[in-house]
Amino acid sequence: AYEKRFPTCPLIPMFVASDTVSEYKSEDKAIHVIERRCKLDIDAPRLLKKIAGVDYVYFIQKNSLNRRERTLHIEAYNETFSNRVIINEHCSYTVHPDNEDWTCFEQSASLDIKSFFGFESTVEKIAMKQYTSNIKKGKEIIEYYLKQLEEEGITFIPRWAPPIECKSESSTSHARRPVSPAVSIPDSATKEALNNKEILNTSGSPSEPTAGTPDDKLDADYIKRYLGDLTPMQESCLIRLRQWLQETHKGKIPKDEHILRFLRARDFNIDKAREILCQSLTWRKQHQVDYILDTWNPPQVLQDYYAGGWHHHDKDGRPLYVLRLGQMDTKGLVRALGEEALLRYVLSINEEGLRRCEENTKVFGRPISSWTCLVDLEGLNMRHLWRPGVKALLRIIEVVEANYPETLGRLLILRAPRVFPVLWTLVSPFIDDNTRKKFLIYAGNDYQGPGGLLDYIDKEIIPDFLGGECMCEVPEGGLVPKSLYRTAEELENEDIKLWTETIYQSASVFKGAPHEVLIQIVDASSVITWDFDVCKGDIVFNIFHSKRAPQPPKKDSLGAHSITSPGGNNVQLIDKVWQLGRDYSMVESPLICKEGESVQGSHVTRWPGFYILQWKFHSMPACAATNLPRVDDVLASLQVSSHKCKVMYYTEVIGSEDFRGSMTSLESSHSGFSQLSAATTSSSQSHSSSMISR
Predict the structure, then answer these.
(1) How far is CA 522 from CA 7, 388, 690, in A?
(2) S-S: 517 plus which of 344, 505, 613, 683, CB 3.0-4.6 Å?
(3) Does the domain spanning 2-152 belong to CATH 1.20.58?
(4) What is the reported pLDDT for 690?
(5) Where do Polar residues bias regions lie (predicted)?
(6) CA angle, 394 as apex, 388 and 400 as ends, to 5°?
(7) Residue 375: beta bridge partners?
(8) Angle CA(499)–CA(501)–CA(506) in degrees, nearest 5?
(9) CATH, domain range 220-287
């Protein structure tokens, strides 16, 4: 289909003609390389063409087809004005590593304008316009020629196979083997081979499969069993986002089901899904959400007076959560526990919901990624509109919406009283549009009629308090005794304790104001380890050593930046009069870390003294060859709204004899997303140098 655009293509008006310069074909016909000289009529102002003295621009294009590897590589560069303007373009068609029925297309280009009669800026704009136009039309053109081939009756081209030499029976058998994948090897075997290849490439050992899917397969059976109906585009988005996570969040990859929730929440817009997923992963790590079911025990007040609990499943197999909101004393719970304990309890409910979805997926043999919530409002009155209670509810909704998207399959609101519209008006703006569509609201006893509860829940499990026959073990709620109330000071202190109960610290990094952490080493050969996430902006990570202690750390007020949040401190230790090489030395090469990356590493100290870990703002380098900014630099700079970066970090010093070469030996390493990912914590060999995995 690609070859049909030559010698000229009516769908590309500026492509006037082309001539073959050279051509090569290998004896086995696996390799076909053809070089052409292409004549282009660039859409440029007449004046510019007159000044340049040309009407047409010539490019050299080299196409390399490798039928053995099933790749097509296309290289192009300008012949005209090559001493003034350098344009290089590279495209490639390859077979998708996870699904050989898909074709991957990649395209990149570079532009370097040295001089052009004073019209450098104009030429750059023209080049960008033409390149953007070509990208948009590329898919349209290839699909046009594919359709043309189908109309000509060509719908299948046999896969290339090496020539068969019938010297002996064994050699004949061996020669035929490459042909078999296209005709006789079962699909599952082909997928298994691809899977093994991927495992070796990503983890280095077939015994350490990467996270994502049970066997890291994305075949039709796996999709149907665990993910549900996906279009090829949706499946491709999932694979691409998972691959990006594997490159930047080593050992902490959520399962496909969870990645898919974020993609669905953003209509499969990869950039938007990646942004909210990264924020959620950082949030989970910072607040140790993965361990909430194992390490946090709800206070007795919650167990006695929080009128909610899990109750069987609905007709679709979704776990069913019952909440008797009308019977719950929200004011009493907030006064006795504070917002943080309520929030943590709701998070534990959501974590339990994720676990139950996985269990039901196995039980029912089909993907179940969300649960149903039944809310009984019998007893709801103005007492529930107490302002601090509503504030706590809005905050809980905000946190859940951000970190558990697409987990609510259906919300059944029963026996809604007259006061309900007031509450709904307050909370509905904080609920995502897609989530709101899943709400079904019944007033009075309407839920007992047609289209009511029986359409969604089997009669046998309708709770007794709703007229059913099933005993529901959800607590009945009731008023919280005032003797359990706590003072505002007690609640405030408790809230701070709960919210900051994390082994990670947050810091802000500004242009000209790095954040620095001091570590004193007494015994040489101790190991400094670190684990940090770049939450915003790009930073440079450095490690320095000094024989003398710096001055006591000073908080940098930076009034223009107004650092006021407790989680965004900025500390500078290296005095401005200190000189690198005299007062302190660099012990590791600087590491540039991009926004969204998770970095772990270690350094085996050679000398006692004072070590300084530094996170510094990363400025975009200027282009060396020209005063014009590179396109990549401009695009990257647009993504940074201010000269501020944020990092979340954890450091620890351990004896060399206790070091195991990776963060697996640290308490912080257990921040791998246990509820959302398989056990994929990677390890590496210990060296007397920094080891950084991204």
Answers:
(1) 73, 50, 19
(2) 613
(3) no
(4) 37
(5) 198-210
(6) 135
(7) 323, 413
(8) 80
(9) 1.10.8.20
Give the side-chain half-sphere CA count within 13 A for 62.
Answer: 11
Q: What is the DSSP string of 449-471?
A: STTSGGGTS-GGGSBGGGT-SB-
For domain 505-550+569-620+641-658, give its CATH number from 1.10.240.10, 1.10.645.10, 3.90.105.10, 2.60.120.680: 2.60.120.680
**Closest of 47, 42, 46 to residue 85, by C-alpha:** 42
List the end-to-end C-alpha distance of the chain, in Å, as a whole number.
39
Grade residue 441 by pLDDT with cuts at 50, 70 and 90: confident
pLDDT in tens, 53-68: 778 889 999 999 999 8
> Beta 505-510 vs 598-604: how paired, if at all?
unpaired
Task: Tell me the percentage of the chain whose pLDDT exceeds 90.
Answer: 23
Instruction: Tell me how far the alpha carbon of residue 336 is from its chain's centroid.
Output: 38
Helix (H, G, I), strand (E, B) or coil at 106: strand
Candidates 3.10.290.10, 3.40.50.1980, 1.20.1050.10, 3.40.525.10; CATH matching 290-483: 3.40.525.10
Retrieve residue 421's tokens.
């519209």
User: What are the structure tokens assigned to 351, written together?
Assistant: 């974590």
Q: How many residues does the chain have?
A: 694
Q: How confident is the model at residue 429 (pLDDT cuts 50, 70, 90)?
A: confident
Give domain limits for the chain.
2-152, 220-287, 290-483, 505-550+569-620+641-658
162-214 pLDDT per residue, tens: 887 544 444 333 333 333 333 333 343 333 333 333 332 333 322 333 334 44
**Containing H/E element for 434?**
helix 433-436
